[in-house]
Design a protein that fits this description.
about 325 residues; Polysaccharide deacetylase; two-stranded parallel sheet; hydrolase activity, acting on carbon-nitrogen (but not peptide) bonds; alpha/beta; signal; TIM Barrel; binds zinc ion; single chain; Glyco_hydro/deAcase_b/a-brl; NODB_dom
């Protein structure tokens, strides 16, 4: 755990939720009912990913693959009690060691949703903006999630010309290697990781189609599953996904999957884990008690710390502002 004030206070809250029986009650609900916990990671350390896996195994959850989920949706297999689906977004280079080695050790399935442009180029677009350690990095990145995709590309290109970053994403060789495991399903996550509703139609089609074709050529397998970058989509995105031949897609709405959710299989919810947080917090997250608690606390204090919900109005260094204005 990173020892920040945020993580320490969240750890205390999580321990209180565990002590008060919230986690136990949620766990029993999943183990006795028709619910699937659908979880997503990004770039966890091996230690934190394995700790989550061990907790799920210890508490008798049943690991299912994304293909199993499709079979359940098609009525080809029964809805499991206490099902859990592990997914990972972006395609970080460290996933080979920190995720794939762990799932191989415990023989459990995982789906990894990969953006193809970072694989070809090495880094994710937001890293070019975050190269300089500054409290404005997050705000700058959130700002670019709100503008048109063309504006985002123009700003990111300006930063790219100024800086070279070391590789963050998996290489094509790594993807090919991990895809050989029957426990790993590779899925789509667009080409350049844009906010899809900010794209025009041609950009949207290209993002979904190009990435699918590239991944299929790299691993010689069909790419049928998808995760929306940042969890953002509209009815238009669902239609284009269907046109491109995808069969199932995940959002970032923090909820378990019920029979009802499965009917909208291009809008499947997922609960996000937080890297650097305490195991206690991530346990609360996994069983779905964390997000409702935080929502209630925020409502109680009329308090919203979400950067994404704030009006973008921030100070940046002169040089940064010049770039953002272009
Ligand atoms: Zn992503």
């Amino acid at each position: 755990m990173d020892l920040s004030f945020r993580n320490l206070s969240s750890w205390l809250l999580a321990e209180a939720l565990i002590a008060l029986g919230y986690v136990r009650r949620a766990r029993l609900k999943y183990l006795n009912g028709d619910y699937i916990l659908s979880l997503y990671f990004h770039n966890p350390s091996k230690k934190e990913f394995e700790a989550c896996v061990k907790w799920l195994i210890k508490h008798k959850f049943t690991f299912i693959s994304v293909k199993d989920l499709e079979s359940i949706n098609n009525g080809e297999r029964p809805f499991p009690k206490g099902g859990v689906l592990l997914t990972v977004d972006d395609g970080w280079a460290s996933n080979e060691t920190n995720i794939v080695e762990v799932i191989a050790k415990y023989e459990i399935p995982v789906a990894i949703f990969i953006s193809t442009h970072p694989v070809e180029e090495g880094s994710y677009w937001w890293s070019y903006l975050g190269f300089r350690k500054s409290k404005n990095n997050d705000k700058r990145i959130e700002f670019l999630k709100k503008v048109s995709n063309s504006e985002r590309l123009a700003v990111v290109d300006t930063f790219k010309k100024q800086f070279t970053l070391s590789r963050e994403a998996m290489t094509i060789e790594q993807i090919h290697k991990i895809s050989k495991s029957f426990l790993v399903t590779i899925g789509g996550h667009t080409h350049s990781h844009p906010i899809l509703p900010n794209c025009d139609y041609l950009q949207l089609y290209d993002e979904l189609n190009t990435s699918k074709q590239k991944l299929e050529s790299w691993i010689n397998k069909e790419i049928a599953f998808f995760a929306y970058p940042n969890g953002d989509y509209t009815i238009r995105e669902i239609q284009v996904l269907k046109d491109c031949g995808y069969r199932l897609a995940f959002s970032n709405v923090p909820h378990y999957i019920s029979r009802q959710h499965l009917q909208n299989h291009f809008e499947l919810p997922r609960i996000g884990l937080l890297e650097g947080a305490s195991l206690a917090e991530n346990i609360c997250r996994m069983v779905g008690v964390w997000h409702p608690t935080i929502k209630n606390i925020k409502a109680m204090f009329n308090w919203d710390t979400s950067i994404a919900d704030k009006t973008v109005n921030y100070k940046v260094k002169k040089a940064d502002l010049a770039v953002v204005k272009k």
